[in-house]
Fold:
Amino acid sequence: MKIAVDAMGGDYAPAVVIQAVAEALKEIPDVQIVLVGHLEKISYYLEKEKLKESDRLSFVHAEQVVEMNEPSTNAIRSKRHSSITVCAELVAKGLADGIVSAGHTGAAVAATKVKLRMVKGVDRPAIATAMPAIGGKFVLVDAGANTDCTPLNLAQFAVMGELYSKLNFGIENPKIGLLSVGDEDVKGNALTKEAFKILSRMPINFIGNVEGHDLFNRTADVVVCDGFCGNVVLKSAESIASAISYWLKEALMKNAIRKTGAILAQDAFRELKAISNYEEVGGAPLLGINGVCIIGHGASSPKAVKSAIRVADTFAKNALPSKISDRLFECGV
Amino acid sequence: MKIAVDAMGGDYAPAVVIQAVAEALKEIPDVQIVLVGHLEKISYYLEKEKLKESDRLSFVHAEQVVEMNEPSTNAIRSKRHSSITVCAELVAKGLADGIVSAGHTGAAVAATKVKLRMVKGVDRPAIATAMPAIGGKFVLVDAGANTDCTPLNLAQFAVMGELYSKLNFGIENPKIGLLSVGDEDVKGNALTKEAFKILSRMPINFIGNVEGHDLFNRTADVVVCDGFCGNVVLKSAESIASAISYWLKEALMKNAIRKTGAILAQDAFRELKAISNYEEVGGAPLLGINGVCIIGHGASSPKAVKSAIRVADTFAKNALPSKISDRLFECGV
Structure:
């Protein structure tokens, strides 16, 4: 499989991306990479990593980058030569099998929607993010591709989340929950109350509403929500986790006894950190587009980008888009 | 001040509530309490705590309770003699100055809206919850009173949050942020994009969008959002904090060295726990209704209910409702 990697995407791009590509070529057997970016600007990093054109690595120039503070639509309007748009074109033309980008999420959504089109039957794409919970990971979908959703969008997200959960975590019949404000059927907002009715009729393992309290107990394997709420949940969970880590460090450094305790228990803290480490997860797939696109965390490390390349490689080998289309038809949404 | 306490509200009611009342009478000078509940059902607990009618404690019978799985509107329809509705009636008749309930939030909202009416100029009430962050607490408003909101509702929540932040935390000119999916002006959903425009025009210290990442860094003193998102954030933050605590314990118990370390550092863990302890915060005020109503966490301990009684007492002494009305007028919303 040939993966188009957006060299310019991410808070620490291109350095981190190029380091990741070097590692991926060593560690992931047979993967081929097309590195897309401003060739002049990345040449220094290519030399540093001793990366040259080969049968497994090629380069494609992209003049522009969609910056984080720009509207998403610039990817398909004023910046049609941006790295993410060029990545999408490569897949559209059959010159690559998947995309990895840690850049502007909205731009990736816009570029792939236009260049690759949607899977037949899908109205809106969704980002599926695997999150740590007690007893395993759960999938949050949509984690930020669509800020305004209809009940039918949520029903389609459920199908896409179900397939992702099966494919990525090998769960036979994933439990699907609807994110809401109480576990009773009567609770929710206008959107979730309607979505609840549709989900109840579908031939999926729908377990009803799940509320914030249930999330990290892995009550559900797949949690469905609109992209606004999903993004807020995802980012606030990261924010509270890092606040807790800050408070813990501060409390442990207060005196010599605690410091000694902390040194003795340091492996435990390392294990705790590893649980919530998104580096291992390796990015979130954008589901519903006619192709493979893995979106990396903006603050991705080389390890995280490398994991994302690995995930893109796996996804490209499985024909997920056509599976989504078939399953939507079965579910009548 | 005389506080009507809902004896039947909360996961561990009436036991926990009555224990809290006993402690409050000892610890909060001059507070008077009207305990509202099914007198037969609570008599055992009253005896246990040696609570008798006095000039500081009286009892009012309420035949019914709105259970957690019932629709909120039952408080004002099929269960007009429920404890929360009777509490609201007492305030409406001038027989009490405030309410404390750890029961069904929606029922408390419905009962107080109907019995006490709204503050002049407020369209919807909001729950303001104080949450821990690095460098102090921030106020999340609305934390769950309204699942569907208009942009104008959010603007009014900003005003109520501002006044709460001033009154409760003594912050002179609170920084107000709008919860969204990116800090750029262009990002958000249809609701927040409209609310952004209104907030920008108001004579408040509006700092723009804040996203999930910023929440627990206390970028803003007041974070405004719809009650669906707010409730999800509040509860998922609790959920992830308890998952982290679970993982930490598990990792610390893995071998003798780590266990020793954990014992030496135990005061640090205790301090960490205290930071996120909602028991100290003592419930969240329901703002925008014409009176004082403090909503306790469903899983409230006696200490949490006691803190809520203390907060109700303080609020009743400050004429918050009329201040809200004046400030809304100043802000043109």
Q: What stands out?
A: Chain B touches chain A through 68 residues (CB under 8 Å). The longest helix of chain B spans residues 227-252. Residues 125 and 245 of chain B are 34 Å apart (CA to CA).
